Amino acid sequence: MKTIDLGVQRVEMDRIFDFATTEPVLLLTADGREFVVSQADDFEAEVEALRNSESFQRFLDERMKSRVRIPLEVVENEIEEELGRA
Questions:
Q1: How do strand 2-5 and strand 25-28 relate by DSSP bridges?
Q2: Binning pLDDT at 50, 70 and 90, where does residue 8 land?
Q3: Which of 32, 55, 66, 70 has the greatest number of beta carbons closer than 10 A?
Q4: What is the mean pLDDT of the chain?
Q5: Position 15 pLDDT exceeds 90
């Protein structure tokens, strides 16, 4: 997985899409949000590519170390509220 810190460098979307054709791209924003860009072509191939990606596995390992947990009920309530506003 390629990581691009948008707080440090500006990258045009075309370039991000170019990267995403070969591997998922993790975008870090200046305010701390994270986004993953990945080519949406073949789900099974994508799963296999992520399973074999050492950088993606390290990313998941780091995420698992986080002490912050959001209960499923909170996520479900947020989704319901957002759907109610739509």
A1: parallel
A2: very high
A3: 55
A4: 88
A5: yes
Check residue 56 and give its pLDDT.
87
Segments in the chain forming alpha helices (H): 13-20, 43-51, 54-65, 72-85
Residues 6+ apart with CB under 8 A from 26: 1, 2, 3, 4, 34, 35, 36, 59
Spans of all domains in the chain: 2-85
* Cα 17 to Cα 85: distance, rounded to the nearest angstrom: 32
| Sign of the torsion formed by the C-alpha atoms of 8, 3, 27 and 75 | negative
Let me know: does 17 contact 41? Beta carbons within 8 Å.
Answer: no
Answer for the pair 26, 36: CB distance below 8 angstroms, yes or no.
yes
